[in-house]
Amino acid sequence: MPIIVIDKRILISLFLSWLVSALIIHSLLPWLRRLRFGQRIRSQGPQSHLKKGGTPTMGGLGFTPVWLLVSAVLGTLSAKVVLVGLVGVVYALLGFVDDYLKVVRRSSLGLPARYKIFVEIILGASVSFVAAHTLDRGSVVTLYPSGLTVDLEGVYFLFGTLVIIGTANAVNLTDGLDGLAAGAAGLAFLSYATLFTLTGMVEMAVMAASVVGVLAGFLPYNIHPAKVFMGDTGALALGGALGAMAVVTGTEMRLFFIGGVFVAETVSVILQVSWFRLTGNRVFLMSPLHHHFELAGWPEVKVVRVFWLAAALCGALGLLGPLSVVGR
Questions:
Q1: Would you say 99 and 110 are in contact if contact means Cβ atoms under 8 Å apart?
Q2: Which residues contact 209 (CB under 8 A, 6 or more apart)?
Q3: DSSP summary character for residue 287
Q4: In the predicted structure, residue 38 carries a pLDDT above the cut 60
Q5: Residue pair 128/160 in contact by the 8 Å Cβ criterion
Q6: Higher pLDDT, 105 or 86
Q7: Which of 4, 75, 96, 243 pairs with 119 at a CA distance of 20 to 30 A?
Q8: Is 167 helix (H, G, I), strand (E, B) or coil?
Q9: What's the farthest any 2 CA atoms get from each other in the chain?
């Protein structure tokens, strides 16, 4: 069995990101409380969540800049790293505007969806086009885990756009319980850090490990009962970066497994809305899926732990297939 050598920059990135993000979040909390940047809870959600109103939000401000900066300093500023970082920055800004408007308006409604989706489409299409035509990414999509390939040619950028937008919003949908999205995203990025380490993509492994580190620093403040929420500032940045990471490394279909929890959450919303419009009935007690289990009587902590376990299993599934096509 070959010996796996881990570049020390990957481990330094993990540790440094954890330490810095933990210190920043600790310092950021009093500031968010003073500014009254508290979360507005949707009245349509579980009634048990109403008591969470006023919990500081925009916690993503405390960790998104950290993983971006650490990745830039410790990694190589390759085109792939720059593209993923660009997506992270733009989505973080988009999420910040959304969060800020919710706070200012004292409402659970932030930036209008049409504005968000416009920016997301332009960004996703641009990154996918550059990845396909400038990087060695090409337009070939690998059907994980079979290893079979399909060349999407001129329409690849549409596929890549859907991957980035879909992943960003899937992570955002999952951010509905204390620690759920942070833990699930951390496990997904851990799988990618492992995958990139095994395939020698050090610069991408450094970036993925940095995200794992910042989420490890954030999670103690976010688990139940949460002292701070990441908000759209953090959730959109994480999801956008995860989707972009898959696009630039040719692992879009592998992401379907690694991010299985996010897929399930998104599918539950699509099924719920579609079935209700067709029949007037609901498939789940409430969507996204984590709310269904809450209303079924599961304690919030149990739902989160079960979803974390599912995320870990999904991450493992994403590592079982052939590695030779990564980085295509």
A1: yes
A2: 10, 11, 13, 14, 17, 189, 193
A3: S
A4: no
A5: yes
A6: 86
A7: 75
A8: helix
A9: 59
Mean pLDDT of the 263-275 span: 96
**Angstrom distance (rounded) from CA 295 to CA 106:** 26
List C-alpha distances in Å: 288 to 205, 264, 271.
31, 9, 10
Geometric angle at alpha carbon 262, from 305 and 68, rounded to 5°: 95
- Is residue 277 pLDDT above 50, yes or no? yes
Q: What is the pLDDT of residue 49?
A: 54
pLDDT exceeds cutoff 80 at 149: yes
Element (H, E) at 142: strand 140-143
Instruction: Determine the average pLDDT of the residues in 107-127.
Output: 87
- Asked whether the beta carbons of 39 and 56 are under 8 A apart, the reply is yes
Six token digits for residue 31: 């500031």
Pick from 111, 106, 79, 109: nearest CA to 95: 111
CB atoms within 10 A of CB 292: 18
Averaged pLDDT, 132-158: 89
Across 81-110, b (16+ Cβ under 10 Å) vs e yields: bebbbbbbbbbbebbbbbbbebbeeeeeeb
Instruction: Compute the residue count for the chain.
Output: 328
The stretch 172-188 carries a mean pLDDT of: 96
Q: pLDDT of 64-82, one tens digit each?
A: 999 999 999 987 788 899 9
Residue 4 is predicted with a pLDDT of: 67
Per the CB < 8 A criterion, the answer to whether 92 and 42 are in contact is no
Prior bond of 145 cis (ω within 30°): yes
Burial (0-12, 13-18, 19+ Cβ within 10 Å), 232 = buried
Place of tokens 């950021």: 28
User: What is d(CA 15, CA 135) in angstroms, rounded to the nearest whole number?
Assistant: 30
Structure tokens at 119: 């920016």
Percentage of the chain with pLDDT > 90? Answer: 72
The Cα–Cα gap between 11 and 5 comes to 11
> What is d(CA 138, CA 199) in angstroms, rounded to the nearest whole number?
18
Please tell me the distance from the alpha carbon of residue 277 to that of residue 46, in angstroms, as a whole number: 21
48 band by pLDDT with thresholds 50, 70 and 90: low
